[in-house]
Amino acid sequence: MSLIQNSYAVLVIGGGPAGLAAATSLARAGRRVAVFDSHEYRNDVTDQIHNVLIHDGQHPERFRALARREIDNLFETVTFIETTIIRAWTFKTRDSRHEFKVRDRNGTIHRGKKLILATGSVDILPDIPGFQDLWGDVIVHGIFCDGFEKRGKAAGVLGLSSLDDIAPTLMAYFLSQNDLTIYTNGEDPSKYRFQDNLDMALARGCRLDSRKIRQFTRMQDDSIMIQFRHGGVSHLGFLMFTPPTRNRAQNLISRLGIQTSHRDGYAMARGPHGETNVRGCFVAGDTSTVNKTIAVALSSGTIAGTGAARQLAIDEGLEATNPRFTMENEDEDKGEDDDDGDGGEDDFDDSEY
After folding, report:
1. Which of 124, 130, 228, 330 has its CA 20 to 30 A from that of 266?
2. 263 sits in which H/E element
3. Alpha-carbon distances of 280 from 8, 184, 222, 244, rounded to whole Å
4. pLDDT tens digit string along 77-121?
5. CATH topology classification for 126-240
6. Which fold has domain 3-122+245-352?
7. Burial of 216 by CB count in 10 Å (0-12 exposed, 13-18 middle, 19+ buried)?
């Protein structure tokens, strides 16, 4: 049987940079916050973070640990809860406001007036032997995260879809000192949907290699050897790949009815403070943008945290001016606390939304 634990002003799901930044903003407004951390992070595959002032080159785990220590030392209103949230829903209080409950993997239910999803995303990587072992090291997402350290070395770009945004390829071409090859991995360049981008890359001096790739191998000097299916190899200093992603907590996003971008799938904010189409629910970090970097996550987390704090204050102002908001906040949530506690589809009730 699910149990209701403490109530909070704001529930923050996600203990990465976005969630930590959101919690900091809310704590500075004196709000009681719960941060749920599943300890799953997109940048776990890399040893260093980059393009973050003061912290460039720091290990991601150390960055998070220092941030948490700072929050613990400064703010007594933030509680960190090490768990995975498997379900989230809204409910209507007696005064007709909508608030939130979440259920963790242990079946415990937590309640909050506002909800911030900083749940991150997961990279979808190609099924090529050796790729995953090199991802986040010599196979990189972009030059701003990892490419600078490999400047001057021969570079590659994997897949024609990586040219959908042509700028990273052209920047990598410049960084590699004009030595970059586009590997299509068997894709037919003539069928690429953005021919203008491909033509620009070739005109700039990029080479094109359409051979099917068999395997990636790390060399002793930390370069990459690409072996092709029908023979032959290439050697590179680094390879860039722009992976498609999926939201780590897409089940929460779907059940809450949050609108997502049709093309990229990220949860959409409707205004300047990170609020979604579900009032009181804010999004931040990788799950809210195509620009999946730590600097952006920190910024959007701060914005979502301040947005939630602003809305809490306005709600309290409305309560003070309207007598009907003085009633005790007894909820009208029905049908949620099933006995199995597994959060599966069998206990989903559309009337809760």
Report:
1. 130
2. none
3. 13, 44, 48, 29
4. 999 999 999 999 999 877 667 899 999 999 999 999 999 999 999
5. FAD/NAD(P)-binding domain (3.50.50)
6. FAD/NAD(P)-binding domain (3.50.50)
7. buried
